[in-house]
Amino acid sequence: MSMYSQFATDQGLEKNGVVLDYGNFRVTIARAGGSNKKFSRLLERKTKPYRRQIQNDSMDDVVADRILREVYAESIIQNWETLEGDKWKKGIESPDGKILPFCNNNIFDTLTNLPELFADIQTQASKAALFKQTTQEDDAKNS
Predict the structure, then answer these.
(1) Which three-class secondary structure state does DSSP give residue 97?
(2) Is residue 91 within 8 Å of 81, Cβ to Cβ?
(3) Contact yes or no for 118/67 (Cβ under 8 A)
(4) How many CB atoms within 10 Å of residue 17?
(5) How many domains does the chain have?
(6) Is residue 7 part of a domain?
(7) Residue 88 to residues 7, 28, 31, 115, 139: CA-CA distances in angstroms?
(8) Residues 130, 126: Cα–Cα separation, whole Å
(9) Could you tell me the residue range of the domain that residue 127 belongs to?
(10) At what angle do helices 115-126 and 104-113 cross, to 10 degrees?
(11) 129 vs 113, more confident
């Protein structure tokens, strides 16, 4: 196997996203890094006021977590669908079961309310292998 087939990623998938299927909801995510320059630029812009604190390793964890959730809501999560009956509906389930509109505020609130989901999305968005064309083709064949 060549190094290119082992490590090359699909820039289109990195920017436009792949679907994470959680059963009764699915989230389309772009890559956190790689060809997703929107992520890099937004993270840089939002952390710029805290550069000195970051360099000194003194940035408040609560502030850092909030910034990261904002960046993910604005640049990583491309779509969110919830299963209603037997149909997919664009939107995010609220704690009381209602479907909320797909928007940055609702994404941010959900990532705040469900930190384990946010941790999983972060892990997946950082996996280069998830954004390889051959991986997507193999998944399609196995469906």
Answers:
(1) coil
(2) yes
(3) no
(4) 20
(5) 1
(6) no
(7) 33, 13, 23, 24, 20
(8) 8
(9) 13-142
(10) 110
(11) 113
What 8-state DSSP symbol labels residue 95? T
Asked if the structure places residue 116 within a domain, the reply is yes
Amino acid (1-letter code) at residue 91: G
Mean pLDDT of 72-89: 96
pLDDT tens-place string over residues 85-97: 999 999 999 999 9
Among residues 23, 5, 33, 44, the alpha carbon closest in space to that of 132 is found at 5
Q: Which amino acid is at 20?
A: L
Task: Quote the pLDDT of residue 6.
Answer: 78
Q: How far apart are CA 111 and CA 68, in angstroms?
A: 10
Alpha-carbon distance 107 to 72, whole Å?
A: 9
Is the CB of residue 90 less than 8 Å from the CB of residue 80? Answer: yes
Record the tokens describing residue 1, joined without a space. 């196997």
Q: Is residue 1 part of a domain?
A: no
Q: Where are the alpha helices (DSSP H) in 11-91?
A: 11-16, 37-47, 51-55, 61-71
Is residue 4 domain-resident? no
Are 49 and 63 in contact by the 8 Å Cβ rule? The answer is: no
Contact predicate 132/6, CB 8 Å: no
